Amino acid sequence: VFSLLSFRARSKGVLGLIGNTPIISLKRMATGAKANIMVKVEYLNPSGSLKDRIALEMIEEAERQGVLRQGYTILESSTGNTGIALSLVGNVKGYKVLIFETIPGTMSEERVKMMEIFGARVKLVRPSMSGKKDQSVDGAEVELPGRKKCKELEATRHNVWWARQFSSRANVSAHKKTGREILTQTNGRIDAFVASIGTGGTLMGIAEVLRKEVPQAKIIGVQPASSRIPIVLDKPYPRSEISGGIIAEMLERKLIDEVVMIGDREAVRFTHKLWKEEGLFAGVSSGANTLVALKEARRLGEGKTVVTVLPDSGNRYIRDLHYIT
Length: 325
Ligand SMILES: Cc1ncc(COP(=O)(O)O)c(C=O)c1O
Description:
This protein is an alpha/beta fold. About 40% of the residues lie in helices and about 15% in strands. Bound molecules: pyridoxal-5'-phosphate.
């Protein structure tokens, strides 16, 4: 089976490197927690984040449906990772890619450069960050102006396809694969799963698999403390044509057991711990995920396992605010 899988992966070129990421246990950071904390190293995907999975799935699903054809331009609004992933996957498949890149505050030019290197055209959108309690970025919210632009273009041009990651079923099904990988890698021994919520695709895809195969596992979502629309379990989440699709459905279907709000400072502190104590050069949502996973591991105790993901690479944050100590 292994050689068949690796043959398939090789024949797909770089796209065969997407997914099947390793999972490892935390060592120094887990001191004092009796439960095992396992992190799935999603920043090892080829463009540096778990969004490679959804870029591939959304594009291939659109190809199957015939709504994306050669000569078309792929559109998306992004704060970074999805834009970079669509640029890589779209470009190697021969499409043009146009990303409305939202750059909050001083966020790094490196992201824009990466998209351009992969062949995309990038238009900058400056969001309003006023009224936010801290500087953390909730992609689901700050990307809205870019999504309006995608919608306008979609309405006026026939040869464009908007990936619509916030509501795409392919976003969720891409992460059902992540969920199945986690099941195999842990032999189904999972007591809790933690993931931060942007579009909600990661949490919902993995939760769909876990609810079926390991129904007792607790599903915990993480949201930036600065979110303007906090997720409340028994309250409907606002859904419109340009926002909220996956999150609203996830709440309606009661796929989450708990939502934890994490502030930027705490997330950055834990990201630095991942770098320094574990040698894992992950991004800031990884710090937030690990902090929540560690709290849960302390609560669960001996013989239990908490799983989380490290969504993107630390190289996205080298030049910006995340050097707060
Ligand atoms: C760094 C990072 N972490 C976590 C997430 C959350 O992932 P999802 O959109 O699948 O909820 C995203 C994307 O929004 C992200 O870019």
